[in-house]
């Protein structure tokens, strides 16, 4: 996959050098996840003084950025089909986390224009798709806002942040502020970690975290809390149920374990499922159905097979993360129904264990999870024992 391309048009390109050494953002540039290109309008000025500003028509204080060098700089940039041109401006729409997510997921290139001086020639606006403001204040230039956008977008690109779940539970991702975090020691200067976080009960932990998100937002950002309540109420009035479909297939190979629904099986020919994680097609299909029900993409978006941290991962643990995301969005799993297509081995003796594993990780009763097994009558890749596949359907509801 080509690196995410970021092009910045700025009179102070040296200001962006620290980004290339800034923690995970710098590593993302160094590893080819993203690439940064800087363009100085002075390099496109045609007069001997490399002039980029002039006095405003009609008089007034300050100087105005001229259109010619900015147009030339922007037009010199190679443009991808998924490019988006942003103008950093205090007159723009306030930057939101949803904007960063949209630019990271729906586009593969951002062109950022940084204003300077008193302002810019109005005709420069014809070059842009969106105007972006980072707050109700004025800076000397658009470089700091542009760096904010770059930081916010690059950290959302697959492979930048080590744990995908950290991106879906953070503040502002769903209007609510993030819940409190704790680490060792369990007690420090008389302040103890809440017992629920040490209980091992994942359903109780997620309930506590959701309560904390709501309480913190209500106390610290009543404006956000009001928006969250309105969005939740509107969604509830429009639709109380969501259905999602999931599908996965993995190749059967020698030297790999055969794991379905968290149960390790023995294939008569010693075959197992090939994949980056444990290749549990049953759990993968359920996860895809859960994400699909809320239009959140597929598991490759959150657990990319190119990321070494997911190598050999327990799919049931990944399922817990997906369920947490569903819960965070205000939904709960009502029931799951899945069918595994495999010629061998016989799955019937293991169905109850599979149902129990999935139900426990989701936090629902075992009788709300259906798992069936069938063959393909020797037809297709499953019938030829080239692989095993699974189809799953889930129903989500809002309390």
Automatic annotation (TrEMBL):
<dbReference type="GO" id="GO:0019288">
    <property type="term" value="P:isopentenyl diphosphate biosynthetic process, methylerythritol 4-phosphate pathway"/>
</dbReference>
<dbReference type="InterPro" id="IPR036571">
    <property type="entry name" value="MECDP_synthase_sf"/>
</dbReference>
<keyword id="KW-0489">Methyltransferase</keyword>
<dbReference type="GO" id="GO:0002939">
    <property type="term" value="P:tRNA N1-guanine methylation"/>
</dbReference>
<comment type="function">
    <text>Involved in the biosynthesis of isopentenyl diphosphate (IPP) and dimethylallyl diphosphate (DMAPP), two major building blocks of isoprenoid compounds. Catalyzes the conversion of 4-diphosphocytidyl-2-C-methyl-D-erythritol 2-phosphate (CDP-ME2P) to 2-C-methyl-D-erythritol 2,4-cyclodiphosphate (ME-CPP) with a corresponding release of cytidine 5-monophosphate (CMP).</text>
</comment>
<keyword id="KW-0414">Isoprene biosynthesis</keyword>
<feature type="binding site">
    <location>
        <position position="248"/>
    </location>
    <ligand>
        <name>a divalent metal cation</name>
    </ligand>
</feature>
<dbReference type="GO" id="GO:0008685">
    <property type="term" value="F:2-C-methyl-D-erythritol 2,4-cyclodiphosphate synthase activity"/>
</dbReference>
<comment type="subunit">
    <text>Homodimer.</text>
</comment>
<comment type="similarity">
    <text>Belongs to the RNA methyltransferase TrmD family.</text>
</comment>
<dbReference type="GO" id="GO:0052906">
    <property type="term" value="F:tRNA (guanine(37)-N1)-methyltransferase activity"/>
</dbReference>
<comment type="function">
    <text>Specifically methylates guanosine-37 in various tRNAs.</text>
</comment>
<feature type="binding site">
    <location>
        <position position="384"/>
    </location>
    <ligand>
        <name>4-CDP-2-C-methyl-D-erythritol 2-phosphate</name>
    </ligand>
</feature>
<feature type="binding site">
    <location>
        <begin position="276"/>
        <end position="277"/>
    </location>
    <ligand>
        <name>4-CDP-2-C-methyl-D-erythritol 2-phosphate</name>
    </ligand>
</feature>
<keyword id="KW-0949">S-adenosyl-L-methionine</keyword>
<dbReference type="GO" id="GO:0016114">
    <property type="term" value="P:terpenoid biosynthetic process"/>
</dbReference>
<dbReference type="InterPro" id="IPR003526">
    <property type="entry name" value="MECDP_synthase"/>
</dbReference>
<feature type="binding site">
    <location>
        <begin position="248"/>
        <end position="250"/>
    </location>
    <ligand>
        <name>4-CDP-2-C-methyl-D-erythritol 2-phosphate</name>
    </ligand>
</feature>
<dbReference type="Pfam" id="PF01746">
    <property type="entry name" value="tRNA_m1G_MT"/>
</dbReference>
<comment type="pathway">
    <text>Isoprenoid biosynthesis; isopentenyl diphosphate biosynthesis via DXP pathway; isopentenyl diphosphate from 1-deoxy-D-xylulose 5-phosphate: step 4/6.</text>
</comment>
<dbReference type="InterPro" id="IPR029028">
    <property type="entry name" value="Alpha/beta_knot_MTases"/>
</dbReference>
<feature type="site" description="Transition state stabilizer">
    <location>
        <position position="276"/>
    </location>
</feature>
<feature type="binding site">
    <location>
        <begin position="134"/>
        <end position="139"/>
    </location>
    <ligand>
        <name>S-adenosyl-L-methionine</name>
    </ligand>
</feature>
<dbReference type="InterPro" id="IPR029026">
    <property type="entry name" value="tRNA_m1G_MTases_N"/>
</dbReference>
<feature type="binding site">
    <location>
        <begin position="298"/>
        <end position="300"/>
    </location>
    <ligand>
        <name>4-CDP-2-C-methyl-D-erythritol 2-phosphate</name>
    </ligand>
</feature>
<comment type="similarity">
    <text>Belongs to the IspF family.</text>
</comment>
<keyword id="KW-0479">Metal-binding</keyword>
<dbReference type="Pfam" id="PF02542">
    <property type="entry name" value="YgbB"/>
</dbReference>
<dbReference type="InterPro" id="IPR023148">
    <property type="entry name" value="tRNA_m1G_MeTrfase_C_sf"/>
</dbReference>
<keyword id="KW-0963">Cytoplasm</keyword>
<feature type="binding site">
    <location>
        <position position="250"/>
    </location>
    <ligand>
        <name>a divalent metal cation</name>
    </ligand>
</feature>
<dbReference type="InterPro" id="IPR002649">
    <property type="entry name" value="tRNA_m1G_MeTrfase_TrmD"/>
</dbReference>
<dbReference type="GO" id="GO:0046872">
    <property type="term" value="F:metal ion binding"/>
</dbReference>
<feature type="domain" description="2-C-methyl-D-erythritol 2,4-cyclodiphosphate synthase">
    <location>
        <begin position="241"/>
        <end position="396"/>
    </location>
</feature>
<feature type="binding site">
    <location>
        <position position="284"/>
    </location>
    <ligand>
        <name>a divalent metal cation</name>
    </ligand>
</feature>
<protein>
    <recommendedName>
        <fullName>Multifunctional fusion protein</fullName>
        <ecNumber>4.6.1.12</ecNumber>
        <ecNumber>2.1.1.228</ecNumber>
    </recommendedName>
</protein>
<comment type="subunit">
    <text>Homotrimer.</text>
</comment>
<keyword id="KW-0808">Transferase</keyword>
<dbReference type="InterPro" id="IPR020555">
    <property type="entry name" value="MECDP_synthase_CS"/>
</dbReference>
<feature type="site" description="Transition state stabilizer">
    <location>
        <position position="375"/>
    </location>
</feature>
<keyword id="KW-0819">tRNA processing</keyword>
<feature type="domain" description="tRNA methyltransferase TRMD/TRM10-type">
    <location>
        <begin position="5"/>
        <end position="226"/>
    </location>
</feature>
